[in-house]
Amino acid sequence: MAQDQQLVDPAHAAMVRRMSRRTFVKRAIGLGLSLPAVGSLLAACAGGGGATPTSAPAAAPTTAPAAPTAAPTRAAAPTTAAAAPTTAAAPTAAAAATRAPAPAATTAPAATTAPAAGATAAPGVSAGKKYKVSILNKEMTKDEIVEALKKEGEVNVANWTYTANDAIVGRFQQVVKDEWGVDVKCNYLPSQSPSVYLTNLYTASKAGNPAPYDCMNIEQPYYVEAKNNGITQDIFPSDLMPNWEPVDKRFKVGNQAVAFQATAFPIVVHTTDWFKEWKDLADPRLKGKITIPEVGDITNGGHLIGLAWSLGKDYKNPDDMKATVDFLLNNIKPNVLKVTTDSAEMQQLLRSGAALAVCFWNSLARLEQLSGQPGTDKTVYTLPSTGAPVINGYAWIPKNAPHPLLAQLFINWRISSDGLIPSDKWPFKWQENKGAWSEIFEGVLYADQEKDIPSWFKDDYKKYYPPFSDYDKLKAVDWEYYVAHNKEWQDQEAKGLGL
Fold first, then answer.
1. Rg value, the chain, Cα
2. What CATH number is given to the structural domain containing 491?
3. Nearest 5°: phi and psi at 421?
4. How far apart, in Å, do the first and last CA atoms of the chain sit?
5. Do 270 and 357 share a domain, yes or no?
6. Is the pLDDT of residue 110 over 90?
7. Taking 60 as the threshold, does the pLDDT of residue 73 lie above it?
8. Is 336 inside any structural domain?
9. Residue 120 counted as domain residue
10. 3-state class of 480 per DSSP?
11. Full residue range of the structural domain in which residue 330 is found
């Protein structure tokens, strides 16, 4: 958020033109300028600047990090996981007509208009500039954007469940109020089964209805599937998303999607002192003491890939994956206490000793260790020597989203340091609940963001998160292949489990 708007003299403008946009943004942020203020400086110095960095994904790294035995990351859930509620259901044609969406993408660029007499720009917003909004294929003045935001009024965000869901909502709504002077409502729709979101999107698209969601914040393979089904769209470049620019290129997919996580992966969380590999789930000492994920979504798919690696198999070889699922059904199934992806249930089972190992995400171990609850200091994960598949959350906007401007503002905020690394500006007492903080934060998106880790968490950050310099060691997955073939594995498992 903006602090003070600074004037630009000719010498400074000339200096800006000699450096790349990305370099200028990084240096300006390093000097303490907010991103809206940086955007204003870039606009004032328009006409120069270096080459725009590529947005193509980085080549997939092939090795796994040597991580500590207890390091976590991702979202643990309350006891219920909601599919899209009625407020986000695909509206009928009649209901859609009563909405006040932003102008259609085919609208010609708007003419420059002066602010109303006596009008004052909201903090962080330049009243005189025009904002390129590619998702609408137009340029808009500050006043036009404010009016469009008022008409949109709300934004539907599809994400997971977090302990501090309400804090996400409250902080974003305050950011929009502070930066644009508009009161809006964020409808945060939490679920631990993101595949439901895609089903709802496909249904709305086939019926010719507006999308039931404005902003998707779910794992990368769901974006790949949605893209292959033609329901994604270009959302960048956009002057409403200046925080997209400094994100490392490995976390951007073309002009459509950007990560808001960097170090999330499925793993076996356990309370033993001997567990090392996914294949150890077959150990007789775990008889009736483990949980495995529900069949059908990325949590289970990620664990099947990890198990394949643990067995020395290739997930891109159909015979190898058949053998992997057979191993699960013949050797691991006898040890299963429950099939679940309800993290609150897994926490209870681990704390009571009813389960010694659960298949979930690395954040669960961190959430438990930082909870302060008795016995949770022994809840850890061990990164297998064969690696774990990194599966980060990506933000994107589906076609026909009814509130595209607020969707862009949400993405811009979520990938900023303020949105990525919860601070005391949020309506939550983080220092009294470090677990909730560590649940939302999943690693920085570029090296300079590490300076924004709060001082009270710096020691825990070093313990539980790989530094940005080690990101190349995380093991990537071919998501196009996964999307095309994972159903084969999951169907085989479901049949073997009698589901």
1. 23
2. 3.40.190.10
3. -120, 90
4. 50
5. yes
6. no
7. no
8. yes
9. no
10. helix
11. 266-389+476-497
